[in-house]
Design goal:
The complex is a heterotrimer of chains A (198), B (167) and C (319). By secondary structure, chain A is an alpha/beta fold. Chain A is built from seven helices and four strands. In chain A, strands 1-2-3-4 form a four-stranded parallel beta sheet. In chain A, helix 5 (121-126) links the parallel strand 3 (116-120) and strand 4. In chain A, helix 2 runs antiparallel to helix 6 (156-173) and helix 3 (57-66) packs across helix 6 (156-173). The longest helix of chain A has 20 residues, at 27-46. Chain B is an alpha/beta fold and 167 residues long. Chain B has a domain at 6-111: 2-Layer Sandwich (Beta Polymerase, domain 2). The longest helix of chain B has 12 residues, at 111-122. The termini of chain B are far apart. In chain C, a hairpin with a 7-residue loop joins strand 4 and strand 5. The two termini of chain C are 18 Å apart. Classes of the chains: A alpha/beta (198), B alpha/beta (167), C mainly alpha (319). Chains in contact: A-B, A-C, B-C. Chain A binds chain C through residues 54-57, 59-61, 63-64, 66-69, 94-95, 97, 152-153, 155, and chain C through 40, 43-44, 55-57, 59-60, 62-63, 66, 75-78, 314-315, 318.
Chain lengths: 198, 167, 319
Amino acid sequence: MVDKRPENPGGDTHGLDQVVITTKLNPFIKALKEAGQKTAAWARRSSLFPYTFGTACCGIELMAYMASYTDAARFGAEVVRFSPRQADCMIVAGTITDKQVPILKMIYDQMLEPKYVISMGVCACTGGFYRAYHVVQGIDEFIPVDVYVAGCPPAPESLLYGLMRLQERIDKEGADFNTRERLKQRMAEVDARPKDLG
Amino acid sequence: MDGEPITIRKLRERFGGEVLDVQRRPGDDAVTLKRGRIPDIARFLRDDPELRYGYLMDICGVDYLDLEIQPRFAVIYHLYSLEHGHRIRLKVPLDETDAELDSVVPVWDGANWFEREAFDMFGIKFRGHPFLRRILTHHQFVGHPLRKDYDHGKRQLCTEVWDLEFE
Amino acid sequence: MNNLGYCHAIEEWMGIDIPPRAQALRVFFNEMHRILDHCVCLGPGLVDLGALTNLWYLFNIRELGYELIENACGSRLTTSYLRVGGLTRDVPSDFYKKAKTFLKESPKNLTDVRRLIERNRIFVERTRDIGVVSKEDAMAWGYTGPCARASGINYDVRKVRPYSGYENYEFDVPLGDRGDAHDRYMVRIEEMVQSLRIMQQVLDNLPEGAASTDDPRAFIPPKHETYDNIEALMNHFKLIYEGIRVPKGDWYSFTEAANGELGFYCVSDGSGNPYRVKVRPPCFAICQSIEKIAVGHMIPGPDGDRRKLMNIIAGELDR
């Protein structure tokens, strides 16, 4: 899908980066910037809004993960948004068929950056035991995935662990404000990947 | 009682020319029929006071290619009568060259999606179906995946989104 | 529960007898899964109506059930405890204790939900006379299970053609009279109560004995016999390499799953693999009627109140 937003003629669209460029040599500002990045990463990490793309039995375990025993709210990731515009972490839970790929891709494109994808269950990760005419052999054929959670279906605890790994990853990235460039790169990688058409 | 279940007896009386074969097993009787008058037979089975097959449980297609049975396809109907507790299975064999028969959607509304599924998976055409289009596979799909000569590992990509006004 | 349908189909065709203990345990787990399924139907259904708390209560029941089934077979959701001819193994030693906890704790959670919901004006007004399906329509569309019973169709496979020894247990089949979303909710709740009743009966007179048949056609012999006995070894090999050889023919077998009649139409060519298996999923028939009954309602109507209370399962549609 083509990004239809107008390009900023000034080059970089993100204000904070411009601030950084102009004050590159000032150590105080540099420290401030680092603190700001850390804060932003912390904020991103602790308030992931999941968009649940549940299609099969993993969707049921996804509900269990939100519900009372393994409470996802402890990690700040319980506010389920049913609109991709408000979410930043897509949890793909369940088998994705070829018919669903365009929908999945469209929803992924509609999400705002920074966006993350957790692929839950073997069906979403690799196609699972469906080596058949209708099932995508891993959603990473079409969209970039950050965390793979194996299992059929994974226990809610594994999904929680996957969430924690995603948080670690966000921490490590820091507040990388140039997400669009990186995303373009990752999408190009994904597009170049060979598709397993059987 | 001559031992023959009432459904089969009545079918023989009324549509004697249509009945090709009868398979008898307690609780799991099957009648093989010609394809010509399926909607009439269906209406008769539903409306006859002694039969009253109100439920159409299932419609499915079978491809007998590997079993080497001729004709190649069959459409199978499972009916259930709530009032009398009868069950019957209707089999309609179909040739490969013109796999077509009349739809039973006018008789049972519930036949709609089951017929679409049989069409999608086997390419059996149901004449008079209100909306005979692929239901499980996508619109760019070529071929019918549950036919035994379809390579079951072969995937086909769907590249564009279908308008959401249908389905 | 779906395992039961398939195993039942094969056993019925091959004429394999199941020992009473396996039968009773099958009924126990079947009814437990019925409760778990209704929880998953009602919980998110009520969330769509804005009643979030009930999800927590209902998932408490689910977690208790998960614990039981995880102990017995090792997985939580996609369980495979049943085999053709019985169960994989007998229940573990702490089964009784856990089962008693389940039977004691679930009614509490259920009562909490009922007290929150049933006299709640918002809930009643949003479900009463919404999505009415008449008896005739329900039959024409092929409704079975709780949705059909909410419309007043007295059809339950467990009563009409008992399998797995359901004729030995006492339970009632709840029926609705209006066929609206509220009736569907009430029928489901009442079925959960009845399922608990059946489970209690199973637990009270659980027979002793083997957990699987010793029919050589279907069941792998115990390990020590495989080592000591050449016949058992060959049988083991045959079953592992070729699968269970089912006689030629075609047949239709059906059980009462949580949503209605789950039918299996099988064609066998006499080998270890089925030639064709067609599953008759209850939701497929129900889902196709939404288009018709949603006409003239607001969007939250069809979506929240009706779709969920009809319990449409995507996995059954997308096959």
